[in-house]
Request: fold
Amino acid sequence: MININRVITMAKKEIIHIRRDRASLVIALILPIFLLLLFGFAVSSDVDNIKISVYDGSRTIESREFIDKLNNSTYLKVFKYVETPDEVEKSIDSGDVKIGVIIPDYFATRLRRNEPSDVQFLIDGSDPYIAKTASSYSALIVNSYSNTSKKIINPFTLLLYNPTLESSKFNIPGIIGLILQNITIMLTAFSIVREKEKGTMEQLIMTPVTPLELVIGKIIPYIFIAFLELDMTLILGKIIFGIDIKGSLIFLILLGTMFLVCSLALGILISTVSTTQLQAMHMSLAYLLPSVILSGFIFPREAMPKPIYFVSYLMPLTYFNQILRGIILKGIGVRELLPEIISLSIIIIVIVIFSIHKFKKTLD
Reply:
């Protein structure tokens, strides 16, 4: 038989424990509301204002009218004008734009003769959803222009990097980044807080180990584990899903190690600001769940409201997804990925400084 009095007593005891651990209670109550609002605004598959680069070889009234037709739609927006057709593809390589438009020099001449003229659309196929959407938008605008101007334009569309639009080629690199981030953060998020709960933190305080030395020492073992996981995921991606790496494998591993250090440092930061392992778990989830959405792993970042879009720049996974897809699918190198490398470096420095600063306060 269940003794109601004992049950009530245990319930009262647990309530007292929850009241003492107010940080975990606040996180547990606020986190669902935060995630609901974040996902409600950020999760959208509607993509408008897709950035395009334009090479205008004609430089005539007709070509400018056609460009204005593209730019004045709600679907496409001219991000940059380039001087050569090669620069169009380079702008797609770097991820600045999703569509490149090449208008040939004979564009206006043929239209004035009432002859069909050509326009080439280069579309980034690394994201199949955006590629399909961009292709549809391009065809729609060309048809609209042809109908209103009574001039025939033949669009030629070329899908780059992933011409068959296989979703696995887009998803697997993102999954690799997601797995590495989640495992490394969860591993290290409990490392320092575990010392606090076990009472061994006092022993560390008595040693001559500095906060910087402790943080680095905590990270090093997990770097080897995470590095092994990086290699395994790349190998399995090749064997099981046939994902070939078009770029430099050494460069990918180097930047992958850099991302792992960033994720491990973030885990250490979570561990230093947490007082219990439960708090560390809640804080890890509070970061990991939004990063899945905001990094562009599932939903296109271009569809997010501007404030949330800018918040996504604070997520290391955002840059690593671009690095993974850039090297694996596009085969690009340092020059194209330099902004991502610099941003990731800055985030690593900031996180390590905050971790050390917070740990110093803990020691005091």
User: Anything to note?
Assistant: The chain has a mean pLDDT of 83. The CA atoms of residues 296 and 318 lie 7 Å apart. The beta strands are 50-56, 76-82, 99-103, 117-124, 153-160.
